[in-house]
Amino acid sequence: MTGQDTSAAPTAHGVPPATGRIRVEPEDFRVEEVLGFDPDGAGAHALLTVEKRGANTGWVAAQLAQAGGVAVRDVGFCGHKDRQAVTVQAFSVPVPLEESLDPIRAHTGAGYRVLDVARHGRKLRPGSHRANRFALRVREVQGDRERIDDCLQRIATHGVPNYFGPQRFGREGANLRRAREWSTGGGAPRDRAQRAFALSAARSHLFNAVLAARVRRGDWNVPLPGEAVILDGKRSFFAAPVVEPGTLERAAAMDVHPSGPLPGGDVIPVTGAALGVEGHALLGEAALVDLLVAQGLEHERRSLRLPVRECRWSFDGDDLLLAFTLPRGTFATAVLHELLADAWDAGEGGED
Fold first, then answer.
1. Is 82 labeled as catalytic in the residue annotation?
2. Are both 302 and 178 inside the same structural domain?
3. Candidate list 5, 38, 40, 82, residue with the active-site label
């Protein structure tokens, strides 16, 4: 976490076995959005597949809005993708039924190009995709190859702690620092976007604190009595006052996961041992929790475990080629954190 001691995010699979250079070139970090659905072929929106290189998602949305003659707020996308990368993601742009898609199909700009266009019936919303595929090149890797292979095998089999990555906290922790100042009477940031970033950083920090406590205990991937057990790839969960054998079997199969808090108002859905761990981990953080409640955020849950699917790797000389698929809203840096001793210094590596 940028701006914080990296010991606040303990690893689950031992000491990272390697070091290496990330993002030397944008092509070293490739991300492809997996929508999980096809365009419906009808409707007053164009669904665009866009490849961008070294470009900000919001900036591309603004360029597409200009090309389509619409307001930027009418352009939809599923999530912010990394800037220092090559990414393929979907955008939606309103196009009346009587108008051709050819002009926007042919549109291109500095740092991005339209790969495909189809009719679609609705605007894309944040989080409406299913997953992201990553293909990374880690350059000049140093470390014992056998230990690296062993670590990657454990990552592929057991997943990793689902930390929010360092970019969530802003440059040198600026977003979290604003949240702390706000929570102790320093006043809210004037800019609406900065307020949103500060609140997001506060929730992410509190979640990471609980997750770190569970990693240190060794039960980040095992439901505790009183757990709010979350379904894989979903936001829905069920209460487990007593952990039944069937729940443990489902957790071992990665069908369900332990969850941690995204604090806010409403009833906290954990009890017993799980509540005790969360309460202890958040001692001294009442001001941040109170801020989130006062700002009207509702209590939500997030999986403590991040499954790393379709994971494969090979070496190209001293470079490690690493590919995997992660659910939406998660961070590639959480995977690299287990493998590389300097992974948090990579900065970006996921989506908000």
1. yes
2. yes
3. 82
